[in-house]
Amino acid sequence: MVDNLVGDTWAAHEFLAHATAQGKNRGAWDAIFCAYFGEARRICDVDVLLDLADDLGIDRETTGQAFPDGRFRQRVREEAQVGRRLGRRSSSSPAATPTRGHRTATLCSTSCARSWTRPTRP
Fold first, then answer.
1. What is the pLDDT of residues 56-86, one digit of tens each?
2. What interhelical angle do 60-69 and 10-21 show, nearest 10?
3. pLDDT at residue 88, as a whole number
4. C-alpha distances in angstroms, 96 versus 35, 102, 114?
5. Digit-coded pLDDT (tens) for 89-114
6. Please, what's the largest Cα pairwise distance for the chain?
7. Are the beta carbons of 5 and 42 closer than 8 angstroms?
8. Which of 99, 85, 93 shows the shortest CA–CA distance to 13?
9. Mean pLDDT computed over 34-59
10. Residue 101 near residue 93, CB atoms below 8 Å
């Protein structure tokens, strides 16, 4: 198992909504899962999300502005409500729900699984 710090994933969900609006839904989901499960990166860290935006060819500055201005906050809240209606128990962050272009993703895509290596410990 990969050691990773857990944090509030709200920003990651806003990032996914932003990426979806940019036509990068599949790539963003793959990038999030690879970053968290394959590379043990903190997807609750906005700088990590901005790096993922760069990797996907999404403008870093526009992505960075999407967090403080909250342009996707309501959309993420609505998707969290859908998740609760579908039976998700946690209320701390939204669930991945198959609404508005989001899709449920496998834990690691094929590309992530191919590139994943277990980190060495010091």
1. 999 999 999 998 998 999 999 998 888 888 8
2. 130
3. 63
4. 16, 7, 23
5. 554 444 443 334 443 333 344 444 44
6. 44
7. yes
8. 93
9. 94
10. no
Neighbouring residues of 106: CB distance < 8 A, sequence distance ≥ 6: 33
Q: Tell me, letter by letter, the H, E, C secondary structure of the chain.
A: CCCCCCCCCHHHHHHHHHHHHCCCHHHHHHHHHHHHHHCCCCCCCHHHHHHHHHHHCCCHHHHHHHHHHCCCHHHHHHHHHHHHHCCCCCCCCCCCCCCCCCCCCCCCCHHHHHHCCCCCCC
Q: CB-based contacts of 7: which residues, under 8 Å, 6+ apart?
A: 42, 43, 44, 45
CB environment 1-23: b (16+ within 10 A), e (fewer): eeeeeeeebbbbbbbbbbbbbbe
Which tokens sit at 71? 């342009």
Residue 57 phi/psi, 5° resolution?
80, 25
